[in-house]
Design goal:
It is a single chain. With 246 residues, this protein is α/β, with parallel strands linked by helices. Helix content is 38%, strand content 26%. It has 9 helices and 10 strands. The protein has a 6-stranded mixed beta sheet. Helix 1 packs across helix 6 (139-152), helix 5 (124-134) crosses helix 6 and helix 5 runs parallel beside helix 7 (168-180). The radius of gyration is 18 Å and the shape is globular. The model is unreliable at 1-21 (pLDDT under 50).
Length: 246
């Protein structure tokens, strides 16, 4: 086993141990969301119920326009539902102020998207340091955490490179490291391999799943790739605004 793999085994064992007793990491209860289209309303989500335990890996499938991204935006407190409640770590978030929701996103949630959204003017290391520093960590502590993660994900030799000098797979690994920087209880990934070739997509998906399992973070990943989704603990389909278990 290489050094990166060994580092991955060690990654946040304390967080994993703590997570085992946290119960439900994320609960969506009766989530409804609709949008106005001219004179009509389009119901995208119709009372979605979903629970994720710490360390669970759940794949969410559905055609384009089925509401997967909307559901992840709501789960990540980036959008408010019309009906229902988002509960993170046992705390209902529906009545929280925007400032409180921002704090929960920073402390408890990690996001990975199809396009990495790394800041082009910063190195890989600096991109991963930013969440910790925004959360109040010292520069030295944020740097140490970033290097730990980049090593665990096998891209430590690229830490000084800016995103433009990284391959697509390396960019996504750095994005995963950034999402893990503040030891989130919940990871939300929206088509994280959709912009990658088949081999790279498989490797990146495996990295994402390993990162979640090693830290007992609940992982909800939206994907069109049925082969990758089959690696999850459960595969769910979003159809006509409701969740169907495959």
């Amino acid at each position: 086993m290489n050094e990166a793999a060994l580092a991955g085994r060690r990654l946040d064992r304390e967080a994993a141990a703590a997570g085992a007793g946290r119960g439900v990491a994320l609960r969506l209860a009766g989530i409804g969301r609709r949008f106005r289209q001219g004179e009509n309303w389009l119901e995208v989500l119709r009372g979605v119920d979903l629970e994720l335990a710490p360390g669970a890996v759940i794949a969410l499938m559905g055609p384009s326009g089925s509401g997967k991204s909307t559901l992840l935006q709501i789960a990540g407190l980036l959008e408010r539902p019309d009906t229902g409640e988002v509960v993170i770590g046992g705390r209902g978030c529906g009545r929280l102020s925007d400032a409180e929701r921002t704090r929960i996103r920073r402390e408890s949630l990690g996001f990975v998207y199809q396009f990495h959204h790394l800041l082009p003017e910063f190195s890989a290391l600096e991109n991963v340091m930013l969440p910790g520093m925004l959360a109040g960590a010292s520069r030295s502590a944020a740097r140490a955490r970033a290097r730990e993660l980049l090593t665990a994900l096998g891209v430590e030799r690229r830490e000084s490179h800016r995103p433009a000098r990284l391959s697509g797979g390396e960019q996504q690994r750095v994005a995963i490291a950034r999402a893990m920087a503040n030891r989130p209880a919940v990871l939300l990934a929206d088509e994280p391999t959709g912009n990658l070739d088949e081999a790279t997509a498989s490797a990146v998906f495996a990295t994402l799943v390993q990162a979640a399992r090693e830290t007992s973070a609940a992982l909800l990943v939206a994907t069109h790739n049925a082969e990758l989704a089959a690696r999850a603990d459960a595969m769910l389909r979003l159809h006509n605004g409701v969740i169907e278990r495959s």
